[in-house]
Amino acid sequence: MQSQFKQIKVWDFPVRAFHWVMVVLLGALWWSADAGEMSLHQIFAYLLLTLLAFRLVWGVIGSDTAKFTHFIRSPKTVVQYAKDKHKPQSLGHNPLGGYMVVLLLSLLTIQLVTGLFATDDIFTEGPLYSYVSSDAVSTLTWVHKQNFNIILGFAAMHVLAVIVYLVKGENLITAMITGYKRVKGELLHPKMTCIWLALIVFAVLFAAVWFSLLADVVKYM
Ligand code: HEM
Q: Ligand 1: which atom is nearest the Cα of residue 173?
């Protein structure tokens, strides 16, 4: 029997937008910190904070493949998947990749939270700087600097993994751009959540970040 390939929508627009805007913002955060453009650094950080908060909410209420319950699998499943010579096709993140996603999202969370308490000892202080002791500020600033290198290391591993899949004939990058994956055989189409819900959630989160953090920085630019 001839094998049947079909195009299936695996990533909704919110996940794809989250991914690529996050990549751009990480680059912008790196550049702004390096160039001492600390107002811009704060603006980019608050935008990333909004985006990350959105992704965490979307991981609960979003489309099937965006949900944490869809890609956080038991350690037994992960070991089985890693050992499997003929790996089954995954519609979203595979069991191993799911843990990399959790790790990257956790590292980004640590980066953003520590940044709220950090200082450059010149002009810029995070908005929560004055709520903790100076020892805590020093530690959190140190974590903020070191964690960025850890993010770079794991992001490099993540990109390398994507390239390995590409070389082996599975193009995950196109799927993260178009949303569609070419799959073989009969697989159920993942359920996609309505884009309007994503826009409403994003707008609420953006308003919260704007009024509590962003507006002040933009005003004094
Ligand atoms: C140009 C470089 C990059 C490429 C080509 C790329 C590609 C991809 C691809 C293809 C996926 C889907 C993987 C799958 O099918 O399971 C993905 C997911 C993901 N990537 Fe990247 N990536 C890049 C950079 C980054 C960076 C710098 C980060 C941040 C540290 C990152 C974080 C993530 C996260 C968190 C996901 C999960 C998306 C979600 O479920 O919301 N990526 N990436």
A: 10
